[in-house]
Amino acid sequence: MNSTIELLAPRYDIAWYPWAVQYFFMIAVSYASLWLAAPALVFGKKAWLPTARLALIACVSTTLVAPVALLADLHQPLRFWHFYAYANSHSWMSIGSVVLPLYLVSVLGLAWLAWRPALQAQRSAPGLSGMLATWLSLGSGITPRALVAVVGLAALGLSSGIMLYTGAELAIVKARPLWNTVWLPPMLATTGFIAASGLVLVLNRVSGLCSQTAIRQMLYVLLVTCALAGLVAISWFLDGVNAHVGSVAAALESVRHSDSWRNTALWGGITGLALFAAVLLLLTRPTLRQPGVRGAPTSSQPALFAWAWLLGLVAIHMGWMFRWVVLMDVQHVARNSAGFHHYGIPAGSSGILGIVGTFGLWLAAILLIELFIPWRQAQQGGLIATPTHATQDASSTHSLTAKKGASSHV
Hints:
The protein has helices at residues 18-41, 49-73, 82-85, 92-121, 127-137, 145-171, 184-206, 212-242, 247-255, 259-283, 286-289, 301-327, 352-372, 389-404. It is mostly helical. α1 (18-41) packs antiparallel against α6 (145-171). The longest helix has 31 residues, at 212-242. The chain is globular and about 90 Å long. This is Polysulfide reductase NrfD. It is found in: Cell membrane. The chain crosses the membrane at residues 20-42, 54-72, 92-115, 146-167, 187-206, 218-238, 265-283, 304-325, 345-369.
């Protein structure tokens, strides 16, 4: 007697759309940028002020946009109140719904305290900028430096909570071996710092600040974080290769026969090594090793700013693509059958339009800050003197020469 057995596998829709990629990317850039701004704004390291000013605008803009992407990923955004009506202390998402609003408030509070002295100096400016500065500065009193440090420390503590919950809510999913590993949270954190450092380098160029000090500091951060990310990736791989059981071994087995996954791993490894080598090469340039020497040749400055800007774009690409692979490509791997599922990015709000729209909203936030907030004068509280016409002209001249490639020792 002959018999036939048919195995049927149900069709599952993907659980997380590209909105989740946007949220995980934005929030990682947010907490990493906050840590890059902390040495100057929280701990008073004046040498980090140029970097801190750029990092703060990156932090505020991404902190404002990230919750929008998160709400969109809920598929029904108005149901966010369920997190509070039906709180669950055993759910990392539920914990995140409490930490995220507190983090948002702390970042905005730190930014206001850092920008307030400059807003006070801008109250006499004509037009809308002066009116907004008068309203936002909330009086003419001194901004206590201790208050800036306290709010900054609170924001750093809450950012650690964001770092923990965004990694843990993926790592606890046992149905996905590619997620269910202790190596994922540190990899998300290190690539977040890579992307944030790259964004600071890009903002340093496009804003006209052109600070050589910021370039040097961010290149060192990139060097360290690339090395750490490489260590985590190698440890992750060795864990799976040397183990016969466990989530990492199961994860490698699930993608062993996939050409696309091998190509993705190869692309990620080559890009990371190339970025590390390029940063190391750029750090050996004499103009970066001796930034304070007046006699350093100025002809190399345009090339320095151009290379730093390009490396920043590559770093941003690495941070975003890692999250796309983790959140989207992992969902291609079949959970209850062999093989891989195909996912085509739709053109609507759950696909390309959502990705472009999120980055557009982010750009709009940066432009509004650029228009109405004197972020270039951010400092750790205190008072800032009203700039005279002479100092304004000098700053304008400095900005123009920096754009032309003259030496900058900010």
